[in-house]
Amino acid sequence: MQRITQRISRPLCRALSSSASAARPSPRETILAASLTHVHTHGWTEQALAQGVITSKLPPSYIGLVEDKKSEMVHYFMKDCNDRLKDELELNIAIAKMTHTEVIKWCIRERLSMNIPFVRSKRWHEGMALGAMPLNALETANHLEEIVKIIEQGMMLSSSPSQQSIGRLELGLVGAVYIATELHLLSDESDGFRETWNFLDDRAKELASAASSPFPSPDMIVAGSAVASSLAGAVVSLAAPAAQLGVQTVAGSVVPQIMAFMQPPTIDSTVGTKAKDYDLSDLPPFETQTHNSDQENKR
After folding, report:
1. Those residues with Cβ within 8 angstroms of residue 34's Cβ, 6 or more apart along the chain or in another chain
2. Torsion angle, CA of 111/116/119/124, rounded to 10 degrees?
3. How far apart are CA 70 and CA 127, in angstroms?
4. Residue boundaries of the structural domains of the chain
């Protein structure tokens, strides 16, 4: 009952807290928010955006406020979900008693649950494909990085004694677990997406084991980088043909962007240990002839 009350009061609290600085959302934000309800019918298309203008009771010409009429709906949805996740995190007083692993599972499940309406209507694979297009991949990666930062905030609020610090490698692995679970969600047909949440539990346990190692091995880094892309290949073979484009595009565009976030600087310790590393053939000749002539002139 308390959780239901929190969900209902959250938008009101946000509106009251922002009333001093901003009286109401801009017409553009109003249109984008209204358009999301029409995506289930029309997809991430201009038709959905046009219906959003009508629903908002704004002049038809206001549709021009949204320049990239497909991608901006996806990015607005991602940003709105991240903002809602922040609110949920602040309202959840149980976070302080959670372990890091429990925080990771809770945050990822809460955030991915926001995608479920579009997963049910078979529209989220289209949204993922749009977000992973070359012109959108960087902004999508920024949204994903924001999710990781929110999870990090939750981990810092927890009282887990098992992990004193949160390393860059661990945060990168959290991002990989999120992407892998999201891709798994696309092909999950179990009741209540049970298989996806079981998958998340298993990956979170593996992450806890990796994070407990005081010195992450190169194998851990490689495994973390490969987990999302390798799972993407598995999901492609399971998903419906319409979903394959979204999964493949995410695996090829967004996964490298977010995984770059976790890569530590590398130094090749083998360079300079072999004779062939020092090729002197390109060096200019010493000016021995000039030096000799100068010595003869002095004589």
Report:
1. 51, 52, 53, 55, 56
2. -40
3. 9
4. 23-69, 70-262
pTM of the shown model = 0.69
Helix (H) or strand (E) run with residue 105 in it: helix 100-113
Q: Which CATH architecture describes the domain 70-262? A: Orthogonal Bundle (1.10)
pLDDT tens for the chain, residues 1 to 299: 444 444 434 444 454 444 444 468 899 999 999 999 999 999 999 999 999 999 999 898 888 888 887 899 999 999 999 999 999 999 998 998 999 999 999 999 999 999 999 999 999 999 999 998 888 888 998 999 999 999 999 998 886 655 556 677 778 889 889 999 999 999 999 999 999 999 999 999 888 877 665 554 444 444 444 444 444 443 333 333 434 444 454 545 445 544 454 444 444 444 444 445 444 455 455 444 544 555 555 55
